[in-house]
Each structure stands twice: as structure tokens, then as C-alpha cells.
Amino acid sequence: MTICRQYKSLPPEAATIRQEVFVEEQGFVVEFDEIDDIATHIVLFKDETPVGTCRFYWNKEKASHVLGRVAVRKAFRGQCFGQALLQEAEQQVRALQGQSLCLAAQVRAKPFYEKQGYLAAGDEFLDEGCPHIWMYKSLCEDA
Question: Using CA atoms, how far apart are residues 85 and 7, in angstroms rounded to an integer?
Fold first, then answer.
């Protein structure tokens, strides 16, 4: 059984998953930041095992909620857990009357986000040497 749990501060399960995926596996250095203090964190559990995480927060400059730090542990990839995390985040943002989500996707993950309805916008940019691109999705039913 899978279940998503929501947290108002960074839970240890999310920190562990992000450490494994972004720091140890992908080599990012600046993984934890001040946004962790203002974001809503989601952790997806399979049975009682934490398998994936993401966070979202309101960004005034973008006039949108921003989704980030989407990570699924290596052993659990290819089982639609990433898609489940996105759907949960989208549902929670809709519940807050949010009309859109944007994210800075790693370019290599762009096809995954496109399959979930996200559209690329703007130029690629580097984040710690890794190519990223901003992507957006309208959460309005008639969009």
C-alpha cells in the first residue's frame, strides 16, 4: 500500500531520500536551503518504507507555487512513484486554490515532466553545473 504524508517542516525521511539521491548519487553540494523552512514537504511511503519525496511553496515573483526536490530512491524507480508524487503535490496545490505549478527540472528529466503535462519555458541554465529548465503546468480544469 502506498500513502503520501504532508509535513510543514523537513521530515527526516525526506532529508534522507534527498541526501541519497541528490548528494550521494548526483553529486549536488547545496541540497538543503532556506526554502525547506517555508515549503510543504510530501513523503511517499510504500508500506512503511519512505520511497520518494518532493516539496512545494508559493513564489511571489513567479506568481505560482513552485515544485522542487522531486526524488525517488533508486531501488523504487520505474514504479510510477514519481508520477504519484506529482499528482499528490498538484492535488494539494489545487486545495490551496493554486492555479499553476512550476519547477526547475533537470534537463535529462524533462521528458518525464512533459508526460505529466508540464511545458518547458525559457532557456536552459546551470544549477551546480547541471543543466536545468523551467517548466510550468496549469492546474485549472479548463486549461
Answer: 14
Residue 9 is classified by DSSP as: S
Name beta bridge partners: 55. 41, 68
Q: pLDDT class for 141, splitting at 50, 70, 90?
A: low
Describe the strand order of the beta sheet including 100-106 as a list of residue ranges.
2-7, 40-46, 49-59, 64-72, 100-106, 130-138, 119-127
Task: Indicate yes or no: pTM above 0.85.
Answer: yes
pLDDT at position 140 is: 85
How far apart are the C-alpha atoms of 83 and 15, rounded to whole Å?
20
Q: Distance between CA 128 and CA 54 in Å, rounded?
A: 19
C-alpha cell at 127: 544549477
- Fold assignment, 2-98: Aminopeptidase (3.40.630)
Rounded to an integer, what is the distance from CA 50 to the centroid of its chain?
15
